[in-house]
Amino acid sequence: MNPLRRFAMLYAEALWLPVNALRGHSALLRMLVQREIVNRTSGTLLGRLWPLLQPALQVLGFWFLFAVVYDMQNVRGPGYAQYLLLGILPWLCFSELLARATGLFREFGALYARSPFPLHILPVVILVLPTVVYTLVLALTAAWLLGAVAALKTLLLVPALVLWTLPLVLLCAVVGLFVRDFGQALPFLLTLLLYLTPILYFPDMLPAGGRALLWLNPMADWMALVHAFLGGNPVVLAGVARLAGLWLLLLGPCWLLYRRTTLHAREIL
Hints:
mainly alpha
């Protein structure tokens, strides 16, 4: 087969991964998502409210620290709370997906270790619940801060972020399987990336040299897109192009790496 055609087929397969998982294994996917919800909420008083309360409480903590303790609304203006709350939720979704992906093969090892199992649906399993939870929480936050139109925009924004994260989810799953230290290092790396991304502060609070280097950070492009899109402001096309280019660059190789790893996952575990 022509290498260019094989390359195109590889990308098409990766692009249709969520659709094929929903279409070909919908009952299994639904069962695994329900299992995840039960594992998270079983035996708790608030039950299935906890997946929604967890990001909401995290946001409340950040708001208290920066808007109340540091009084950033008076220092940086009344728009700071809006900037913080609308930026931190997409970040929490992104970081949760990568942290979960790192232990993906080990988490579900009992399901496929001794019996046939469609391993290609596992990345989709961990994408479903965060997509629903963070879309709902961000929609409620956007409706409170900006109105109904911004809330409706979140229905596109969060799924787009989750889909963009798919290559990184595939990559983290493979690296987490082979390099166990990666799971220990990832929280530090995510914390470092959080501080390097204009989420807890405005971009103009950085020195001029730091602002010039923001284009190297794809999450800075995401934050600019989130605030512009939800706020009804012009979207910086250069940032969108960088995000799309990075996604296309990673998607095919990461899917190929994941697909080849699934052939040996049982042996490794």
